[in-house]
Write a structure and sequence with these properties.
The chain is mainly alpha-helical and 129 residues long. Helices cover 88% and strands 0% of the residues. The chain has one domain.
Length: 129
């Protein structure tokens, strides 16, 4: 269970990082066009949504670290600490852009495994019986 938490935390963190880098790359490539549209059309809901997606992209990069850290914490038996760390990494980007849950769903699954993983002391006590 603890190894599963580690693997899912690492894979989920990498997925979040890749999605965040892709969104930032797409935004930077289209920045000149976005500036022109902003001048012509002014503020619009679509541009505000794009800005929220960029904020979410940077949070997805932070979710990379949170996912890996939460997976490691779950692996060493501190799943009660690792689970909230992974949940923050999954939920915070989704506040700004809901599609980020696509990558963050692995962190949510990893958080469940981290929460259910037994600490090392409990495993040692149960194997001795």
């Amino acid at each position: 269970m603890r190894m599963t938490c580690l693997i899912i935390g690492i894979v989920g963190g990498i997925c979040c990082g890749l999605l965040g880098m892709q969104w930032i790359s797409d935004y930077n490539e289209s920045k000149a066009l976005i500036d022109i549209v902003e001048e012509v059309a002014g503020e619009s809901e679509e541009l505000a949504e794009l800005e929220r997606a960029v904020i979410s992209a940077y949070m997805l990069l932070a979710a990379t670290v949170l996912g890996i850290a939460g997976g490691i914490l779950g692996f060493v038996g501190k799943g009660k600490i690792g689970a909230p760390v992974m949940l923050v990494g999954a939920i915070l980007p989704a506040v700004f852009a809901l599609p980020s849950l696509l990558a963050g769903s692995l962190l949510i699954i990893g958080a469940v495994f981290a929460f259910l993983a037994k600490p090392k002391t409990a495993m040692a006590a149960s194997s001795g019986e």
